Amino acid sequence: MVKNSKIAIIIVNWKQYQLTKLCLYSLQKIKYDNYQIILIDNESNPKELKKIKNQFDKIITFPNQKNLGFTGANNIGIEYAIKNDFEYVMLINNDTEVEKNFINPLIELLEKNQNFGAAQPLILNYYNRNKVWSAGGFLNKFFGYTYVIKSPEGIKKNIDWITGCCFFLRTDVIKKIGLLDEKFFAYYEDVDWSIRIKNAGYDLAFVKSSVVYHHGSKSSKNESNEGTLSPFVHYLNIRNHIFLLRKNKDVFNSVGVLFFQFFKIVSYSVYFIVRVRINKLNMVYKGLIDGLKKNIIYK
Predict the structure, then answer these.
(1) Any idea what the CATH number is for the domain that residue 33 is in?
(2) Looking at the structure, do residues 175 and 283 belong to the same domain, yes or no?
(3) Nearest-angstrom CA–CA distance, 89 and 85
């Protein structure tokens, strides 16, 4: 029998109301009743947000005038959950849909195994449900790179880091380790949170019997003559990776990290020069410079 714990399900929306509605429709069908959906709406459209509030139950909304990123927006929901005595917090992307029973296996595992501080479900590709999008994360501590497990052969119960696509954890754990680091804005904040949970003495679990479907990173796409991925995403990727390594320098091997980062920057540079994607090339070096600064401040 699964404990009927109080769960805060936090969703961040940024100009993707149709995708968010699909996520909310799927959550309304879950076989669990003690939950509250907390929708944080970055650069909020009042008319669209009002439609959602009128259309869905068990939802409270927080409109933001500007884009606070994944970290800033989620922290609003997390703080609400802590103040209102929720036992569990789930961060879940708005571009996901869930199986009806996906929550129960997550709670069951954390209730039975107090050594696990957080868990993630099996995340499959929405358009090809035989394809794994994430079965947990691997962290190479020598070179300092992160890897998403995508093959059935790589699946294991105890993982190195949990994707922010669906991050399920005890509120008590958050009280010990703190909120998401808002300096990240988006990308690598989930790896940082995972490292902090592990440093607090917990393990991280992958739960294969809990299933979520992922549409894809729609907010990262930006159709242009430089490709589909936004140049700003490349900036965050470079900057935040370096910031992660600097912030958690005791976890990684400094020689291996320098080697890998040199290889990464050179590889990106060659690729963008060959493809004549100058804006993206510039963003790579802006990310490098900002990542090496003493104080990282998002602007």
Answers:
(1) 3.90.550.60
(2) no
(3) 10
The verdict on 199 and 225 lying in the same domain is: no
pLDDT digits (tens, 9 = 90+) for 147-191: 999 976 666 789 999 999 999 999 999 999 999 999 999 999 999
Domain stops at, among 216, 236, 253: 216
Nearest-angstrom CA–CA distance, 44 and 250: 39
C-alpha span between 107 and 103 (Å, rounded) = 6
Taking only Cα atoms into account, the Rg of the chain, rounded to an integer number of angstroms, comes to 19
Mean pLDDT value of segment 62-76: 98
Phi, psi (degrees; rounded to nearest 5) at 167: -120, 115
The mean pLDDT of 93-117, rounded to a whole number, is 97
Are residue 155 and residue 259 in the same domain, yes or no? no
Pick the last residue of a domain from 195, 216, 237: 216
Residues 229 and 180 in one domain: no
Can you tell me the distance from the alpha carbon of 88 to that of 5, in angstroms, rounded to the nearest whole number? 7
DSSP 220: G
Cα–Cα dist 214/241, whole Å: 23
Residue-level pLDDT at 299: 45
CA distances to 125, 135, 212, 289 from 129, rounded to whole Å, are: 5, 13, 10, 40
Buried b / exposed e over 95-113, threshold 16 CB at 10 Å, is bbbbbeebbbbbbbbbeee
pTM over the 0.70 mark:
yes
Place of tokens 């909310």: 24
Dihedral class, residue 67 (left if φ above 0, else alpha if ψ from -120 to 50, else beta): beta
Domain range enclosing 18:
7-95+103-216
The total of other beta-carbon atoms located within 10 Å of residue 177's CB is 19
Amino acid of residue 285: Y
